[in-house]
Design brief:
By secondary structure, this protein is mainly alpha-helical. The protein has one domain. The chain has three helices and no strands. The protein has helices at about 1-35, 40-55, 60-115. Helix 1 (about 1-35) packs parallel to helix 3 and helix 2 (about 40-55) runs antiparallel to helix 3. The longest helix has about 55 residues, at about 60-115. The protein is rod-shaped.
Length: about 120
């Protein structure tokens, strides 16, 4: 009876990790789309998942399920980091364009003020 209770708890925890990974993916998509100004904190979820994965899982099905959840998280993490990189590159290009436009305006103003 104890083993089945333990397996039930493990299964519930794995389902929770999977649900949180999906929610984090949706939050990252909102950040990537510009709907959320703050990047979601995925590091805490990763830490929890890695710590939980160190447990000894005797049931083969649950062990495979744990591997699947870890694999899914790692794939999503790659996607998230790619999105973050794209967002940062886009914002850098926007800043460079603004700086260039400001310099051009300043040069035009200087040219106008120099002319009699």
């Amino acid at each position: 009876m104890k083993i089945s209770k333990e397996n039930y708890d493990i299964r519930s925890k794995l389902m929770e990790f999977e649900k949180r990974t999906e929610e984090m993916h949706q939050d990252f998509y909102k950040y990537y789309s510009g709907l959320e100004p703050v990047m979601p904190g995925w590091e805490a979820l990763e830490r929890e998942l890695v710590l939980y994965s160190r447990r000894k899982i005797l049931d083969l099905e649950l062990s495979k399920n744990m591997d699947r959840v870890l694999y899914k998280f790692q794939n999503r993490k790659k996607i998230w980091l790619t999105w973050v990189e794209e967002v940062h590159h886009a914002s850098q290009k926007d800043e460079e364009a603004k700086d260039k436009a400001t310099k051009e305006e300043d040069q035009e103003e200087e040219a106008v003020s120099i002319r009699p």
